[in-house]
């Protein structure tokens, strides 16, 4: 009887283990603003479109890819880079236009004058949109997470801790700034300066005239995304947003996003937006620094992998043999002469 009970226990454990499922939060990685809408890329390849005012979901597109690390949009099309080493162009109705292979994750993109500039592990490329016809490429050694472009130059992290500067038309390297002591996850620029955020805990300001250091902001740990406007710099730092006043380079505010990691930030006219690992898109008012809208959280179901697959029939057969054996021994016991 003990043997049969043991086999029944094994059977119950196997059946229970094969049926376990979990609800997981889908994490948004990237976002961009265009014409009153936010385009948000998620970890499982979903691209969701929200009303920028209310953060009401307007459209959801399954791109059949994974890890949308960066997204950009123009009047007609959306462009996104993924962890499948591709830059993609797509009509706003969800119809794919083209894809372009890269040597690693496509971490960031920049749109300027119908040209898409992409940044992956060790290369910077430029494409004519929307068909993604390759116009040129250049090697970029090190960790390239961010890219910016102005009328003359392309700026991107290079050699892990530096900032590479290339001629926008010829892609020839102009110079390289020895910027930080650790990885540079994000850069941003305006008319006068280049701004770099590093894992060494600093944000630095560099002049576009001679690429000299103008200022250093300290106590900015784990930055992931950096943007700005005419008055402030906005930087994600772990689960917080640091707001730094331009000019005196002092912190104006520190905002808690509710995430362990706030991945990207997008700055528009009177608001800025953040996405993080709590699964939300958040809207913040520039005047009050208050959270004024939050998106819904989206989930997906995962099933525990059946670790007994391949052994199940064996256990079923063993169970049957055990039951039959027990029945036979019980029958023989009854037939014994008393």
Question: Overview of this structure, please?
Answer:
The protein is mostly beta strands. Helix 1 packs antiparallel against helix 2. The strands form 8 sheets. It has a 4-stranded antiparallel β-sheet, with no helix packed on it. Strands 6-7-8-9 form a 4-stranded antiparallel β-sheet, with no helix packed on it. The two termini are 22 Å apart. The chain contains 2 helices and 30 strands. The protein is globular, with a radius of gyration of 27 Å. Helix content is 12%, strand content 49%. The chain has 2 domains: 44 residues; 278 residues, YVTN repeat-like/Quinoprotein amine dehydrogenase (Methylamine Dehydrogenase, Chain H, 7 Propeller).
Number of helices: 2
Backbone shape: globular
The SS-based structural class is mainly beta
Rg over CA atoms: 27 Å
How far is the N terminus from the C terminus?
22 Å
Overall pLDDT, averaged?
88
Number of beta-strand segments: 30
**Corresponding CATH architecture of the largest domain:** 7 Propeller
Strand arrangement, major sheet: 2-3-4-5
- Count of structural domains: 2
Briefly note the CATH topology name of the largest domain. Answer: Methylamine Dehydrogenase, Chain H
Low-confidence stretches: none
The CATH homologous superfamily name of the largest domain equals: YVTN repeat-like/Quinoprotein amine dehydrogenase
The main sheet comes to:
4 strands, antiparallel
CATH class designation of the largest domain? Mainly Beta
> What fraction of residues sit in β-strands?
over 45%
Task: Provide the helix percentage.
Answer: 10-25%
* Multimeric status of the protein: single chain
């Amino acid at each position: 009887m003990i043997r049969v009970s043991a086999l029944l226990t094994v059977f119950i454990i196997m059946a229970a283990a094969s049926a376990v499922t979990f609800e997981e939060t889908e994490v948004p990685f990237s976002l961009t603003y265009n014409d009153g809408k936010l385009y948000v890329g998620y970890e499982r390849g979903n691209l969701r479109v929200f009303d920028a005012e209310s953060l009401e979901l307007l459209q959801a597109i399954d791109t059949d890819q994974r890890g949308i690390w960066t997204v950009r949009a123009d009047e007609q099309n959306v462009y996104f880079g993924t962890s499948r080493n591709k830059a993609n162009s797509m009509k706003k109705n969800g119809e794919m236009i083209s894809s372009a292979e890269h040597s690693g994750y496509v971490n960031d993109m920049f749109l300027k004058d119908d040209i898409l500039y992409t940044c992956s592990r060790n290369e910077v490329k430029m494409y004519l949109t929307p068909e993604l016809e390759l116009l040129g490429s250049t090697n970029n050694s090190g960790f390239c997470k961010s890219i910016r472009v102005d009328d003359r130059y392309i700026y991107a992290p290079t050699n892990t801790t530096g900032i590479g500067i290339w001629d926008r038309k010829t892609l020839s390297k102009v110079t390289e700034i020895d910027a930080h002591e650790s990885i540079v996850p994000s850069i941003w620029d305006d008319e006068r300066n280049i701004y770099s955020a590093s894992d060494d805990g600093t944000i630095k300001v560099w002049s576009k005239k001679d690429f000299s250091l103008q200022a250093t902001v300290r106590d900015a740990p784990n930055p992931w995304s950096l943007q700005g406007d005419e008055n402030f710099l906005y930087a994600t730092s772990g689960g917080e947003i640091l707001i730094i006043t331009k000019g005196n380079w002092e912190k104006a505010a520190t905002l808690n996003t509710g995430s362990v990691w706030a991945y990207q930030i997008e700055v528009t006219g009177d608001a800025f937006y953040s996405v993080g690992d709590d699964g939300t898109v958040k809207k913040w008012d520039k005047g009050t620094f208050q959270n004024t809208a939050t998106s819904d959280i989206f989930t997906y179901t995962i099933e525990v992998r059946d670790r007994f697959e391949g052994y199940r029939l064996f256990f079923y057969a063993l169970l049957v043999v055990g039951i039959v054996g027990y029945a036979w021994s019980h029958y023989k016991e009854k037939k014994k002469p008393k």
